[in-house]
Amino acid sequence: MKAIIPVAGAGTKLRPHTYTQPKALIPLAGRTILSIIIDQLVEAGIQEFVFVVGYLGEKIQRYVEQKYPDLTCHFVQQNSREGTGHAILLTRDIVQNDEILIVLGDTICEGDFSELINSPVSLLGLKKVDDPRNFGVAEMDDQGHISRVVEKPQIPKSNMALVGVYKIKETEQLYDCLQSNIDQQIKSHDEFQLTDALECMIQHNVQFKPFKVSNWFDCGRKDTLLETNAILLKKYKLAANPVLPYEGTIIIPPVSIGEGCNIKHSIIGPNVAIGDNSVISYSIVKDSIIGSFTNLYEVVLKSSLIGSDANIRGLSQSLNIGDNTEIDLG
Q: What domains appear along the chain, each with residue ranges and CATH number?
């Protein structure tokens, strides 16, 4: 079985960070979004991955090759962003007729992935949501099968959202439906959607059952990314990443502090993740994500997302600052 992870999106909702960093590589609870996904799949037994890259794709490839040298990895370039359906179709020659597991590169789900991989039938990951209009939506029949899927319906007939995890056994039918939709220019919301290809398969009598995830973390916007960071910091407890004593500094768990950081006369936490080699002095930081090689001096930050190589002096409350930024608030 091969795992396909589409990571070609530009991450427009997380700008300015995604001008210089792929969304999948944004730090989260001492790791990255992509590493959390890969580690989860490797633990379940997956050893071969196909990454669909585009915007800043060379950073994705370099990161994966350096961090996971023992995995078999393929990289497919999506030069034009035409949707998830188009992205998956580009992997056809690599996948051939193997079973596949598709996991979208901006979503973290928790569930029994071993059960998912070993299922004798195709499965779609589902989670009940309050407002499903911004997601693909699955409708169920009386036998517990998925009878219909629709991408971002204005009037949903179900509150079961597709969470971005798909186990597909009938790969030939999937690729045929993807190609057919592109040939016929069948789009939803101006893009070729994977959801539409799944609906095509359902109409051709392919059966899908639900795979209900226990948790689903949305990493596509600043607010939800910070919430996810706080949840995962508590979950991981970072036993393998002990917090060192820092001069005149109070650490309020949970926090994750990267290697080579210099912190003094500050209060850090709760719910803070700091990248490698950052310097923080005379500052208060809570409920925030701080990138690598960043310098904070005399600042008060809460609910902030700070990129790498940023230099901030002065006083602030809530910031959304990208990489390679210098700000003086004094």
A: 2-220 (3.90.550.10), 223-329 (2.160.10)
